Every structure is written in C-alpha cells, then in structure tokens.
Fold:
Amino acid sequence: MSSRFRPTRPRARVTAFAATVLAAGLLGAAPAHAGTFSGDVVLGPLWTLKSLGNIDLAPDGTGAMTYIVEEGGADHAYVSRLVNGSWSGPERVDGSLPGPSAQTVVSTGDGGRVSVVYANGGNIYAVTKPAADRPWGAIQTIWGAGGASDPHIDLSVNRKGYLVFTAPGPGGHDVRIAYSKDAAPWTLVGAPLDAAPGSDAGAGAGRPRVGASADGVAVVAWGESGSVIARRVMGVRPSTVFASANDGLVVEGLAATGADQPEVGIQDDDSFTGVAMRAVFDVGGVARSRVVYRRLRGSRFDGPSAVDATPFASGQGSISPHISNGGIGQGIVLGSSDTTNLTYAMLMRADVLPGPIQQVDSVAQSAAPTYAIPVTATPLKMLVAWQFTTPEGATDVRARFYNGRDFEPETVLSKSELGPTAAVRGLDAAGDDNGDIAVAYMQQTASGPAISVATVDQPPGRFAPRAGSKKWERTDRPTLEWTRSREAWGLNYRVAVDGAEVATTTRQSLRVPASLAQGAHTWQVTAVDRRGQSIQTRVGTVRVDTVPPTASVRVTGPRRPETALRLSLTSSDPSPAPAPGVRTAETSGVASAIVDWGDRSKREPLRAGADHTYARAGRYTIVVTVLDKAGNRTVVRTPLTLVRPKPRRRAGRGRADAR
Structure:
C-alpha cells in the first residue's frame, strides 16, 4: 500500500550517507533521466476482476500485486508477481477456502519473497512464497475464531515480517499482531496490543497499520477510543510503552476531539517514525477533519503539522492521509481537500522531519476525489499519483515526479484508448532501491475491467570494461569481461568488436564467437533494458597474438668441462605476413628468455647471450625458452657433448741415459 514502506539499508542514526544525500539535494543534484512509460494492461480484461489490493516492490526490483477475482460465485484472492521486469499470470492464493476472500494485502522481499494476507469468513490467512524459485507454502490460519478484519503486513530488509489485524475483544475489538522470520510460519503474539484492556481498538477507521524497520523492530499504529495509539514490537515482545498521538494534538489553537485512519512511515531506524492520521476538530460546533502528521521520536510524539493548505477559516477540511518514506526518512505525506479535491504534499527530510507543504495538482482541479497516493523509491526519486476527473466525468491517472529538488511537470500515466480509469476500485504505487517506480490502477476497458501498470523505469547504470591482468591475449577468441550495469527489471548486453555487433548476452563476460586477426581490436558493450533504454561502456582494446616468437641459439667455445662456453640468442616476435593491402599487425614482442643448461644448475634469465662452465664431461641438452608478452612460447633444444681431453705423454730420457 502507498502508506507502507519497507526500509532499505540499516543504520543506527543519520549517517554520512544521509548527509551526502541531503547535500546533493541542497546543491541541486541533476535528476536521473528515467523513462516514464504509460500504463499497459498487465491483467485482464476480465469481467470477474473486482478490485486491486496493493502493489509492492522489494529493494531488488522483484515485486507483486494482489487483487480480487470472482470465481465460482465467490471472490478469491489472487497475486501476480514481478520477476525480471515482467508480470506473471494470476496465481490464486486462497486455495479451496469456502466463502469469499477480501482485504488482500501483499508485501515483498529480495529474491522474490512474497507474503500475502487476507480475510476469509471472518478469519485471517497468510501464504508465503520464500523465493522466486521456490513454491508457495501452505495456507496458514493466523486467526480462526471469526470476526477478524483489516489485515496489514510489512516485511523488512532483514527478512523479519509483521502482520496486524483487528479481531473480536472484550471491548468490541482488539489489535493483534503476528511475527515471522526467514519465511517461517507466523507466530501470533498471545496478548492484544490494545493500550487499555477492555477498550474498542482497531475498529472501523481505526484499523491498524504496521511498519517494519531495518533493525527488526515494528511500529504499529491504530485507533482506540477516539485516539491514535502507537506501540513498538520486537519479534514477539511488545513494548510496555504506548504513545498517544492525541496528546498535544492542537492545530490553529484547537485541540482535536478525535483521530483515526493512521498510516505508518517507518525508516531504517525505528527511533524516528512518521505517523499520518485524520484528526477531527470542533470548529464552532461543526466537526472538521484535517490530515495531521506527527513524528514518533522514541516513545513520544513531536508537535503536529497539518498536511494541507486549508485552514479552518477557509471552510474546508482535508482527508485521506497517506505517507511514504525511505530508509533515512525522506519522503512524502499527502492530504486532500474534502471540498476542492486538491492534493497537498508535505515533504519529509531525514529522520522523517516535517518539511514544506505544496499543492500537487498543477494543471487543473479534479471534479471528484483523486485517491492520491505517494511513493518513495530513493530520497531523490519520489512520485505522487492520483486520478483526475473532468467536469464531464472522464477519468485518467496522473503523476508528478519529485527529483530531490522539485516536483516535475504533471504527466498523464494512463492511456485514454484503453478506457477510463477506476481508482475507486484500486490505485497504488511502489518503488525499489534502483529508483524504479510502478503505479498500478484499475481501468475499465471495452472488454472488461483490467489492471494497468505505468512505470518510471530507471535506465541501466554505468559500467565499464573490466581491467585485465594481461595486455595481450594468446587466443584468437579472447574472453571479454565487464562490470555489472545496475538494472532491476531485465537487461541484455550487446557486444561489439571493431564496430560490429557480435553477440548478445545476459552475462558479464563473453568469449568472442569468431576468430580475430592478429593485432589490436576495439570492443564496446551496450546495456539495454526491456524498455530499450541503453548505456555504453567506454571503448576497450583487446590485443591478439597467437604466433610464437622465433629464436635461434648458437654455442661457441671448446666442448670440454671446466672451460667457459658462450651461448648466443637471437629472438624476435615477427608479424605474420599480411594480406595484400592490409597493414602489418602489431605483435606483443619478446618478453623474456630463460636458459636451462641441463646440468641441474639454476635456470637463469637470458638476454642476448650468456657464458657457462660445465664441471664434468658428458652429454647435455641446453633448453632455451622464449616467451612473448602474450604468453606464446618457443623452445629451442641444443644437444651438447663435452669430452675431457686425453692427458699428454711425458717425453722419454733416450738411450744414452739408459746406459
């Protein structure tokens, strides 16, 4: 739902990252050039499609939406999942439960985790798909004693989830909560959350809402005895402290006589949580409602802020509170005039600190309620969507994108050729950590009701050729590698070599499919998303040298031990003969040469020549290995025989001496 946000990155307080984001906003960071794509029908047309529940996106861009379809004479809960940018077909999630299902809500987590909760026959049921590649689990009965309604669910980034609903209690109704971790079965907390035992809590417009923070703590808000109450829950342990948003709830000098319709906007750190609500005031004997925002700081609410430009003196009020914020607290709170149908947005700064208020509708005033909803993808990528109605009754869905500095011009998201929109039967939006936003809404086509989804689709992120450890390749089909381009909704890489496309892949590497000639080649990769948005790497260079170097060896000197021999080396890395009219290819060049003298002495580097003395006579093989810079090698073996010279005979004394 638009008022629910799943935090994105854990932290204890406002970090350096938050400061950086704030500074970027103050300095006027350039908006991302995302593509806005009008709504396409993703479900239907189907005459038995009754309503859209909500849509939710996980930080990694997977997501789901839930809706009600009549089947066999009863309403049933269905889900479609968003995987790699495409919507799956309908999946029924209430099995063979008797009677109609209603009030479906869905929450999602990274990796395709989806949890759905709904009411059926006065009981509350939940079903979870742990991951995209795993089947749906069994339907779990959260409450089976009847009389329950108004479920709400939130999954946090640490795989902890909280589920709240209203059930019968001693004072009429109680607010109940269940907890799950790592897609395990839900555990219903034994005691109600009510502030006062025996009070009527969570009934009607006081229905409960829950937000799960990155630190694993949930904040629950509900209406009880005319007040809005907030309470923290840690796993299955509710806190002992309650906070009443009615304490000090004063606007323009008037104290509120009641409050309901709470919406929770939790951030990564549960110490700061935003709560929007509808407050009622007695203005000269006339009850008038105003959308009010209060920040829950620790266990107390800060002072209230009216989220509108309709002071009591105007004779107007405001209704339909909604809130959406990101992991560091920045976001949007909405309220709509109950008279003019104009929508007002209050921007939240870091730690959900209330900020300026401005009117969202920029082109014209709607002739009917707008069902406006906010969505926060990142602190610099937010959006407000609403339904516009002409005086003649024609409807469309419009939006304004917030780029971290300004609301951009109003744009129509729906396609008029598909028929009028029907936001009264469902309009919701969600965003992911990449800045992508999906807006889902009901549309009445000529062939029946349908669900259409419009998107703000961020283009692929910057990426680059991966730096290799070698300048040259000794294969004519080298493997090219590059870094990842960030894109949540489906991506292909188109690889070009020497200006011509050679392959398309979803991987971050490619072995060139056809042999390359010797020498240098340019290559470049283009990342293309499913919408055709693209970005290119810088041009890379790959050098091919598959030809071994040439080498010749000459040994000079006496072939006998204990006498120095001289080894001379001549080597080169010549280019192969080019074809007529083709320039001679560059080669890598000789890198090194090593000689093994064959007498178990240490191998040594060799340049142009070297001297060596053998200790003993015998047969040896001199092995010279020449490497080029691509790693090609040439080995030259030179046999060598060393002979120790025969000793000289000593001269005789002669015959005279003999006498």
Remarks:
- The longest helix spans residues 16-26.
- The domain at 16-457 is CATH 2.120.10.10 (Neuraminidase).
- The helical segments are 16-26, 655-658.
- The chain has three domains: 16-457, 472-544, 550-576+586-642.
